[in-house]
Design brief:
- With about 425 residues, the chain is an alpha/beta fold.
- Helices cover about 30% and strands about 25% of the residues.
- The strands form three sheets. Strands 4, 14, 15, 16, 17, 18, 19, 20 and 21 form a nine-stranded mixed sheet that branches.
- Strand 12, helix 9 and strand 13 form a beta-alpha-beta unit.
- Helix 2 runs parallel beside helix 9.
- It starts with 5 loop residues before the first strand and ends with a helix.
């Protein structure tokens, strides 16, 4: 199976986190987001324990909540010692409601208006990750009005192409995020921040992209960012104490995808960090990483009920499910591919295009799903590795209520996010 938390019983019953998918669907209905809480904890510990082994207390793992964000998930990752990266006031409010330590909240985003900044300041969060000069100026002004000093990181664009999806490639010079080093603007940005009396520049941040598989991407980022820390020290006398490399290790969506041994990659990255610092004659900075997808992706599964099976002889055949791009838009956005499994039937597989119920031709979940030839209306199908960027990207397109999120732990299950109702859809209409 694609992940060790997916299995089949002898009678063909599909299980996830040791529990029958069919029984969960019968109890909670479909479409249904399942989240394996034990797998999430395991994934958190891969980061925290590896970094602790190499760097002791001189490191922090920060969960990139845009991958999947709801109160129970923030509680879970925080209980594992992670901070949280938020990119909106909504994500910030969720972290606060979950009881996340405010000092471990990092507010990202490339377009924070004054109201966003004021809200975050009022919540007394630990850090702003400042994306641009306009934000820097606004934050200084609003902090001056409050007569307080705010800790910040600056987002720098290192000019690295990680060979990932174009839509999630954030490290290039021409990215919408951060300030580019190659143009000289990055250094000016840093010098401007150091002159702000109400801002305490704690370190630099960079992020090279998502779904990173290449082995040397983060080492290449270090080879740019660490000399920059030294150059800032030599120019200004200020040794910035922290460096945040962002996140982005790739995960497997299909058997043909490469597998990333994250613990081994972190071993090599930490060794490179210490070696380069020694070569440059600078102290090892407080080191931060911001994983999102690799924390929650393989902890998720989405379960659907089949509504119809359509065969067009000599052309194509479809399995249509109740759900689709409203609860998983990633194929429409990125042509992202998935592994699809039947809930109970095995053998005699055929290729189907798994499609949703939305009124769009591009409402595709997986264009080449291998499913038993006998798949029919009322059957269950499960889409694997949907823990990241499914619930968080879900919408009300076609006025579809969003599915519930059910957490699985130790053979038990509980609702973390209630299924929306038709009344919920109409709640704010006037």
């Amino acid at each position: 199976m694609l992940s060790e938390n997916i299995a089949r019983r002898e009678d063909g019953t599909l299980t996830f986190a040791g529990q029958s998918v069919a029984e969960l669907a019968a109890r909670y209905g479909t479409p249904l987001y399942l989240m394996d809480a034990d797998r999430i904890r395991h994934n958190c510990r891969v980061y925290t324990e590896t970094l602790r082994r190499h760097l002791g207390g001189n490191a922090l793992t920060v969960y990139a909540s845009k991958a999947a964000d709801f109160t129970e998930l923030c509680r879970l990752t925080h209980s594992e010692g992670l901070g949280v990266d938020v990119v909106s006031c909504g994500e910030l409010a969720t972290a606060v409601a979950a009881g996340v330590d405010r000092e471990k909240i990092f507010f990202h985003g490339n377009c924070k208006l004054d109201g966003d900044i004021a809200y975050a300041l009022d919540q007394a969060i630990g850090y702003f990750v400042v994306d641009n000069t306009e934000e820097l100026e606004a934050l200084e002004r609003l902090c001056a009005q409050r007569k307080r000093v705010q800790k910040i990181f600056l987002r720098i664009t290192p000019g690295i192409d990680p060979h990932t999806y174009e839509a999630v490639n954030t490290g290039r010079v021409d990215s919408k995020f951060g300030v580019a080093l190659a143009t000289g603007q990055g250094l000016d940005f840093i010098l401007s921040a150091l002159r702000c009396p109400h801002l305490s520049l704690e370190g630099l941040h960079c992020h090279v992209g998502s779904q990173v598989f290449d082995e040397d991407v983060y080492e290449r980022a270090l080879d740019i960012m660490l000399p920059l820390l030294r150059d800032i020290r030599d120019r200004t006398g200020v040794m910035l104490p922290a460096l945040n490399l962002g996140g982005g290790y790739g995960v497997r969506y299909r058997e043909s995808d490469r597998e990333v041994d994250i613990a081994a990659r972190l071993d090599g990255l930490c060794r490179h960090l210490k070696e380069r610092c020694a070569q440059l004659g600078i102290p090892v900075p407080f080191f931060l990483l911001e994983p999102g997808r690799s924390i929650v992706a393989d902890a998720g599964m989405t379960v659907y009920t089949v509504g119809s099976v359509k065969r067009i002889p000599g052309y194509k055949q479809y399995v249509a499910v109740q759900g689709g791009m409203a609860d998983n838009p990633r194929y429409a956005l990125y042509k992202a591919r998935y592994t699809v499994l039947h809930g109970s039937k095995v053998g005699n597989e055929e290729v189907f295009s798994l499609v949703g119920s939305c009124c769009e031709s591009d409402d595709v979940i997986e264009p080449e799903a291998l499913l038993p030839a006998g798949t029919c209306r009322g059957d269950l199908v499960a889409v694997c590795t949907t823990g990241a960027y499914n619930y968080s990207m879900s919408s009300h397109y076609n006025r579809l209520p969003r599915p519930c999120v059910v957490m699985l732990h130790g053979g038990e299950s509980y609702v973390a996010v209630e299924r929306e109702t038709l009344e919920d859809l109409l709640r704010y209409d006037r």
